[in-house]
Specification:
The protein is α+β, with helices and mostly antiparallel strands. The protein is 38% helix and 12% strand. The protein is built from two helices and two strands. The protein has a two-stranded parallel ribbon. Helix 1 links the parallel strand 1 and strand 2. It is globular.
Length: 64
């Protein structure tokens, strides 16, 4: 049985899908992760994800 672990409040999870089918799965996962209190977002490019992870996102939904 899996046990819960403490997650640092600054933890971020960036998801970058390789196909449209994977994107649909990641969007569903994002929904559930955010509902559970995780800071998770789906990005279309690696650069967008890195900017967000490093706090350089200029705005929009993922500027958290």
């Amino acid at each position: 049985m899996a046990q819960g672990a403490d997650i640092a409040p600054e933890f971020k999870l960036a998801l970058i899908p390789s196909t449209h089918a994977i994107e649909a799965i990641y969007r569903e996962a994002q929904h559930h992760l955010r509902a559970a209190g995780f800071n998770a977002w789906v990005f279309t490019t690696e650069n967008e994800a890195v900017d967000w992870l490093e706090g350089r996102a200029s705005g929009g939904l993922a500027a958290s």
